[in-house]
Amino acid sequence: MTGNVFFVIIPNQKKVVADLLAGKTPDPNLGKQAKQRSTHNNYLTLPVLFLMLSRHNPLAFASQWNWIIIAFVLAAGALIRHFFNTMHAHKARPWWSLIVAAVCFVVIIWLSTFSPADAFKQGNSDSDAVYELVMERCSMCHAAEPGWDDMSGPPKGIVLETPEDIERQAQLIYLQAGRSTAMPPGSVIELEAEERARIVAWYEDRP
Ligand code: HEC
Is 185 near ligand 1, meaning CB less than 6 Å away? Predict the structure, then answer.
């Protein structure tokens, strides 16, 4: 989107203005190219908004099939945009595009239920092993006094230092570290898919 603006739309605009100032007729292709790139950007706005907000929804960006989810988000965003573009042009409303977009979202929701942990389904789970795992891999950040200089308190107020803390945050731990790979963040600390499977089994077996 930025490339479209800086490499085509703005330079073409400058050429058109320069031509007009010089009393020449601007090349009509300059305007056509700019219009085409601006249409591309128009169709990309909704997917970009979705991706910016998805940081808060780990099942969208940190589940097993996140890259396919993005493809469906691109399609659904463009389809919704198409509906509004056509409507604003006062043409017949293309309801089909909203229906296909809705189907895309159903597929996205379904895809987001897969976790890398699924390949390591575990039968019974040992709570103590999960407490130990979480305390070992999460508590350097999620502590009353985190072990990082630039962290003034536990991120989002979530403390994971004792089994009681872990039980209290069980559902969030399940979503952030079991069903998705949102936590631990980046590549600071590793949590293998097999270890995530232990968290999933522990949460799902809880009474
Ligand atoms: C390197 C530091 C670090 C480690 C290690 C870490 N976290 Fe986090 N955690 C963060 C930060 C930073 C945030 C806040 C993220 C944000 O604001 O979106 C966070 C947020 C969270 C949240 C709240 C998410 C929300 O949006 O409600 C949960 C739950 C969580 N972490 C669980 C865990 C678990 C479980 C582990 C271990 C498997 C873990 N974290 C390991 C830094 C860490």
Answer: yes
